[in-house]
Amino acid sequence: DTGVSQDPRHKITKRGQNVTFRCDPISEHNRLYWYRQTLGQGPEFLTYFQNEAQLEKSRLLSDRFSAERPKGSFSTLEIQRTEQGDSAMYLCASSLGWGRAGNEQFFGPGTRLTVL
Amino acid sequence: DQQVKQNSPSLSVQEGRISILNCDYTNSMFDYFLWYKKYPAEGPTFLISISSIKDKNEDGRFTVFLNKSAKHLSLHIVPSQPGDSAVYFCAASANYGGSQGNLIFGKGTKLSVKP
Hints:
heterodimer, A: 0% helix, B: mainly beta, 6-stranded mixed β-sheet, 55% strand
């Protein structure tokens, strides 16, 4: 299966700790997106990369959050000094391009973060 | 304020009948719309999309209709099957400024198809 993969699938941490998530996109996709989903809501955009360049960040992405995509392949999302409000499903998606037929975003299974 | 709205949190349909899921949007800059299906503990799965230059797109049992003047789209599933039971998300994107390709999602509609 060559779909989007995310690791870990679940993460439980204590408030104040740092956590890092990894996303491996579909290999030929040059766009990579991070979303966050909380209970009863749809996914909310956090940030995206075109190859290795981070082109946009949502206002939801506070300065405790940082994302990287070295070499334009896999990406990491780090949350420093986690807060209970960070508890959510973190979703990664990739696409060949953007916003047009044939460039749909394909999502990974997500990382469920629980901050105690 | 929500730019993409799915006003029905849930929908129950009998197997074999038509399921109609609705979505409204407020941003007239949206020019591409998608539907995703999500099972518990999985990421959203792409179903079908439509560009704003079209009013209908069909793929097997799934058809999406777009009414630009009403800022409304709908997903029709015919015939509905028990395996279609999932949460369905409507999403939209706009090609302007720095927001190219970012998807704005609705809150989802939980579809239950009863045998």
